[in-house]
């Protein structure tokens, strides 16, 4: 079983994020009002933003520690990160987007090998037909699938998805939600998903962590949150 623990302290302007969380295999849904620190927390985990203080351990490996002076570069953390808007490179084709992370860091595969691995992963995800496409012509649902493949290609020990369904229309969102649920079940490793939709939490069977103004205010499954919501936001999120 893969496990992770994170303690993050970060300040920016007048905002302070101070969160301690841990988890194992399965999905953790990170929810909270706009500006509560959800995206900041994912960016700190991924290593693309720097905290004031941190202790981060994934699969028994210390990736960042203020006390030990450890700060593993983002490309070497084996953390898959799918940002808001997917972050695909419009000037690259699908295969180059998916295989981008294999061109640097400890892997450094030649281009032909990167394409081979990217094509195989797209086939596993049920979207092999996208392999030879350009990113600019993809629909929102297709972009989401390509971005997920790019996050998974490094075989990460922890997967971070920042509002992966937010940019989709209602019909596409339902289809992609089913797709994402199936893929995360097959992933069999920890995943943290930021969402504003309780239907995502229900579909993913996720445990829930609630952030508000940079602080963790409640953690539990949906049944526990419904029985005793810890804030007005939780009641509104659950439709109580």
User: What's the alpha carbon Rg, rounded to whole Å?
Assistant: 18 Å
H/I helix tally: 8
Broad structural category: alpha/beta
Beta-strand fraction estimate: 25-35%
Distance between the termini: 35 Å
Going by CATH, the homologous superfamily of the largest domain would be P-loop containing nucleotide triphosphate hydrolases
CATH topology group of the largest domain: Rossmann fold
What is the total domain count?
A: 2
The residue ranges in which pLDDT falls below 50 over 5 or more consecutive positions are none
CATH top level label of the largest domain: Alpha Beta
What is the H/E order?
Answer: EEEHEEEEHHHEHEHEEHH
Outline, from the CA principal axes? globular
Per-chain topology:
Blueprint: E1 4-12, E2 15-23, E3 26-31, H1 38-46, E4 53-58, E5 61-65, E6 70-71, E7 79-82, H2 94-98, H3 111-124, H4 140-152, E8 158-162, H5 170-187, E9 190-194, H6 198-204, E10 207-212, E11 215-220, H7 222-227, H8 232-238
Parallel strand pairs: 3-9, 3-10, 7-8, 8-9
Antiparallel strand pairs: 1-2, 1-4, 4-5, 5-6, 10-11
What features would you highlight for this structure?
single chain, Rossmann fold, six-stranded mixed β-sheet, five-stranded antiparallel β-sheet, 26% strand, globular
Overview of the molecule:
The chain is α/β, with parallel strands linked by helices. It has 2 domains: 1-78 and 158-240, Rossmann fold; 88-155, no CATH class. Helix content is 33%, strand content 26%. It is built from 8 helices and 11 strands. It has helices at residues 38-46, 94-98, 111-124, 140-152, 170-187, 198-204, 222-227, 232-238; strands at 4-12, 15-23, 26-31, 53-58, 61-65, 70-71, 79-82, 158-162, 190-194, 207-212, 215-220. The chain has a 6-stranded mixed beta sheet with strand order 7-8-9-3-10-11, sandwiched between helices. A 5-stranded antiparallel beta sheet has the order 2-1-4-5-6, covered by helices on one side. Strand 8 (158-162), helix 5 and strand 9 form a beta-alpha-beta unit. The protein is globular. The model has no long low-confidence stretch (mean pLDDT 91).
């Amino acid at each position: 079983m893969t496990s992770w623990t994170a303690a993050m302290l970060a300040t920016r302007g007048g905002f302070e994020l101070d969160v301690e969380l841990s988890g194992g295999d399965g999905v953790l849904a990170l929810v909270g009002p706009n500006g509560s620190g959800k995206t900041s927390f994912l960016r700190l985990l991924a290593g693309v933003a720097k905290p004031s203080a941190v202790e981060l351990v994934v699969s028994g490996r210390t990736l960042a520690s203020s006390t030990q002076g450890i700060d593993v570069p983002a490309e070497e953390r084996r953390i898959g990160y799918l940002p808001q808007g997917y972050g695909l490179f419009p000037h690259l084709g699908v295969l180059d987007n998916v295989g981008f992370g294999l061109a640097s860091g400890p892997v450094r595969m030649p281009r032909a090998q990167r394409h081979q691995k990217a094509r195989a992963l797209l086939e596993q995800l049920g979207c092999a037909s996208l392999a030879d496409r350009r990113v600019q012509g993809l629909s929102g649902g297709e972009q989401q699938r390509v971005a997920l493949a790019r996050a998974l290609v490094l075989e990460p020990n922890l997967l971070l998805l920042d509002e992966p369904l937010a940019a989709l229309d209602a019909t596409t969102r339902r289809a992609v939600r089913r797709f994402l649920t199936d893929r995360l079940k097959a992933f069999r490793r920890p995943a943290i998903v930021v969402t504003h939709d309780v239907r995502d939490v229900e579909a993913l069977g996720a445990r829930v962590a609630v952030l508000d103004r940079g602080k963790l205010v409640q953690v539990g499954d949906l049944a526990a949150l419904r029985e005793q919501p810890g804030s007005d936001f939780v009641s509104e999120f659950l439709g109580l």
